[in-house]
Amino acid sequence: MPALSQSWNILSGYCGQISLGHALYFGLGAYTTALLFTKFGVLPWFGNARRRVISALIAMRWAILLSGCAGIISSSRPS
Question: What is the pLDDT of residues 26-79, one digit of tens each?
């Protein structure tokens, strides 16, 4: 939690950028933990690795889908 709050402080406070990506994966991990506990009875300490893997897989999916988009990020790349 402290790492999440510090990254939000740096992005929003010092840089003036708004990013909800941190909150997305933080919430996804919490949702995965709750789902594993309620549906399958996996304790949160044992579901720790699973939620990290699920968050990483979803992050890779979004990265692959968005890597071909044109916009601010791709306009700064050399052609």
Answer: 888 888 889 889 999 988 888 888 888 888 888 888 888 877 765 555 445 455
Nearest CA to 26 out of 45, 54, 46 is that of 54
Q: pTM of the prediction? A: 0.54
Q: Residues 52, 49, 19, CA angle at the centre, nearest 5°?
A: 15
The rounded distance, in Å, linking the Cα atoms of 44 and 33 is 6
Residue 55's contacts (CB-CB under 8 Å, 6 or more residues apart) are 25, 28, 29, 32
- Is residue 50 within 8 A of residue 29, CB to CB? The reply is no
Q: What is the DSSP string of 36-62?
A: HHHHH---TTTSHHHHHHHHHHHHHHH
